[in-house]
Amino acid sequence: MAIKQFEAESKRLLEMMINSIYSQREIFLRELISNASDAIDKIYYKALSDDQLVFNKEDYYIKVAVDKANRTLTISDTGIGMTKEDLESNLGVIAKSGSLAFKKENELKDGHNIIGQFGVGFYSAFMVADVVTVISKPLGSDQAHKWESEGAEGYTIEPCEKDSVGTEIILKIKENTEDDQYDEYLEEYRLKAIIKKYSDFIRYPIKMDMKEQRPKEGSENEFEDVLEEQTVNSMVPIWRKNKSELTPEDYDNFYVEKRYGFDKPLKHIHISADGAVVYNAILFIPENTPFDYYTKEYEKGLELYSNGVLIMNKCADLLPDYFSFVKGMVDSEDLSLNISREMLQHDRQLTLIAKNIKSKIKSQLQSLLKEEREKYEKFYKSFGRQLKFGVYSDYGMNKDVLQDLLLFYSSKEKKLVTLEEYVSRMPEDQKYIYYASGDSIERIEKLPQTEMVADKGYEILYFTDDIDEFAIKMIMAYKEKEFKSVSSGDLGIESDANENQTETEESDNKELFDYMKNALADKVKSVKASKRLKTHPVCLSTEGELTIEMEKILKAMPN
Ligand code: ADP
Ligand code: MG
């Protein structure tokens, strides 16, 4: 029988794949099980539109079996199977996904569970196997075929016998070498653990024959090993489970499995709402800013499921812009599967869920701030800017939600503080919340304008982000204390120097001031004697609402 070559580019790709795409070998099992699950799903979707085809859920399962003596691991399914052509095109061409084509042909949009799309998962089998044999009998045909390959060299296909429709993937597990261990993939308990870790929510049973110790018949203290077929996956998705059954690792794994991000989430929020609106949600606050987060390309949204079936990958209506960093999913029984995007926008249920989620996120961030300050600061470093944008946008409509989540650097504490902390420390005679703007903490510290306020013993908030001042203008006042820039004309501080002194200084030096004003021509409005300087000879100050920093930003903005 002639060996067919993989397509040229496939050969190189296969070598790369096997050696580098996956950092962990054990995921080969996840990939093969996902394919098996996809194959069963395909029958399920076909049955939806084909009256001749009945889908009895009990008849569909995945089986994982080992044969230690022959070093084989077999993953079989009762799915749709593959024809000879399927075997050639789906397994003979790398990066070709039959599952993606299936979704397109059947116009399945978001409402399906089919996982495959990249057409590379299957080849991960070669990370642990010398030989991969696929025996498959497609739905609606009597002829089965056997596909076999030893890796990059190519594959063979021949007709063969198989009783039932479905696919069997047989892996000849590699021998242990000095550096690499493969025997573990022939150990039932290890395989079961891998399945639990990655494939626990696969909706079809994954069965294994597990060795169990049983008392010997007729004897009370003698035991024997018996093989017992078990379903090893729980099938129930994580969000339907009780919080008390779940560990932090379960959530972390879910985050990775769903590819919400490449980092580890900073915090998870598991909601099982049972009141006016019924839904389950698992939300995550990521640790790191996604690379495209502060760009137009970034798309916010949560996955939306109806009764365990995905309806939408990124439902934007579930998150306000200022919480756009949140990742996760929502499952509600009350949403219709066939609901369109337009209808979703007006769905009362969805609006309620979104409102509910918003307040949950807020309270979780608040408790993170109170109870795990360090973690909160990490979060704030990644997403604080988004919160400040949130305060500023929509004419400050959301300031009440957000103002207590803001942090600013404090001149006194030399670290980030909340507005609440600032106000609670204010001396009785202090009227305003003072702030100073600049490029960096070091530069603000050198500003002559800060001197007078600092000398009074008042705390100053340092604004180093260009959005800071705009956000604060929207808040206007916190706990009835207004914000005041240290460079504004009237600082509201009773000066020790008396009024007359500055007045005489001004009249005595009238010529000098006039000269300076002329020299600076249209750069300044006036030159005055100042009461607020101590060690610095001059400073700039503004009249009216805008500070110098804000004017700079406004000037830099495109019209
Ligand atoms: P993907 O799953 O991303 O499509 P894979 O490399 O995992 O890519 O699989 C390639 C294709 O082979 C699948 O799209 C599917 O058409 C086919 N396939 C793989 N495993 C099976 C199986 N157990 N039953 C039926 N078809 C399968
Ligand atoms: Mg796959």
TrEMBL record:
Residues 1-341 are annotated as: A. Molecular chaperone. Has ATPase activity. It is found in: Cytoplasm. InterPro entries: HATPase_C_sf, Heat_shock_protein_90_CS, HSP90_C, Hsp90_fam, Hsp90_N, Ribosomal_Su5_D2-typ_SF. Coiled coil: none annotated. Keywords: ATP-binding, Chaperone, Cytoplasm, Nucleotide-binding, Stress response. GO terms for molecular function: ATP binding; ATP hydrolysis activity; ATP-dependent protein folding chaperone; unfolded protein binding. CDD domains: HATPase_Hsp90-like. The keyword Chaperone applies. One of its GO terms (cellular component) is cytoplasm. Residues 489-509 are annotated as: Disordered. It holds the Pfam family HATPase_c_3. Belongs to the heat shock protein 90 family. PROSITE patterns: HSP90 (PS00298). Homodimer. Signal peptide: none annotated. ATP binds at residues 31, 35, 77, 82, 90, 96-98, 117-122, 167, 341. This is Chaperone protein HtpG. It comes from the Bacteria.
